[in-house]
Amino acid sequence: MWQSNKLTQDKVLDALRKVAGPDLETDLVSSGALSDIAIDGDKVMFSIRVDPDKAQDLEPMRQAAERAVLDLTPAKQALVALTADNPAGRAAPSPTPSPAPQTPPSGPAGRPGAQARRSGPVPGVDHIIAVASGKGGVGKSTTTANLALGFAATGLRVGVLDADIYGPSQPRLFGVSARPEKGEGRSMHPLESYGIKLMSMGFLVDEDTPMIWRGPMVISALTQMLREVHWGELDVLVVDMPPGTGDAQLTMAQQVPLSGGVIVSTPQDLALIDARKGIGMFSRVNVPILGIIENMSYFLCPSCGDRADIFGTGGARDEAERLDVPFLGEVPLHITIRETSDTGRPVVATDPESDHAKLFIDMAAKVWSRALSGADGALKPAPKIVYEG
Predict the structure, then answer these.
(1) Which long-range contacts (CB under 8 A, 24 or more apart) does 178-181 make?
(2) Hey, which of 78, 209, 239, 283 has its CA 20 to 30 A from 156?
(3) 108 burial type by CB count under 10 A (0-12 exposed, 13-18 middle, 19+ buried)
(4) What is the pTM of this model?
């Protein structure tokens, strides 16, 4: 009897029943650790829930699951991610602060030359900082690009990960449209622009292609862009988070030792409502808030220099004071920032002596200072998620 070679969930599940699950006794399917399986043509994507303390030891299990899927016809790519969460009702352990550095940071940027380089999900990267917003349209990606360039302007080695799978903006902001070069196996080399190492889903798919992906596919893509990119030696990796508080944000909090998060908002109440959600999300997963930036704070007329508070004024500053988190600064709504962003020539890179560039460089210095101290005087370990029933 003729049988279709089309990939199906049943075929994938049958293959995964031959792989031992996280307990190494029951098979992967019976273990209950599998997420929903997503199939896109010849690509198969899913994640496996594991104890966060055993994630590194279970990497061979992930690889075995990947091989089992790739043995299927016509599978050509398997995106398999380990996700770590705590069971309901189990409290996350309190972070144990590491001792503060005994000597002050060296150089204008405070590069932590004496600190041990971090290992784990992103080898070679000292600090990872997430830039987030509760909603779209507040200029988060533009802020991310210029903050990253602000870090670089003070002498740091910087990378940018565009984690906005559905709407990647960093390729256009940095004026890059090439494809990443392949390394060994499935690894990739990041692209580079203005001295910043870059990775984005926008480099892997056409700009007009919609990303109609479910949660497991997003998680797998983020995991690969973190683990399977040769970032090299970086002082800081800046992550442009997608708007909201969904799968991507939780994946970053679970799998990455974030040094902290920066929240971008506009002054009006509607944006601040969503910004509070972003702050609340980071707080619940023990990620320090490094500060709030008020973007499009006011309109500065390029002809006469008059200021107009189109979206109100001071909302983000007041919110920062209310929540007792640092207020990093006000970024004006100005045609220069818009034009340089649209044309792939970020203002910090192309006009570093301008007032706009100096503003971003100053905010980057503030963020870096707090990242070095873990926002409260001590570096923090990677946070763990707690789900309450």
Answers:
(1) 178/203, 179/203, 179/204, 180/204, 180/229
(2) 283
(3) exposed
(4) 0.67
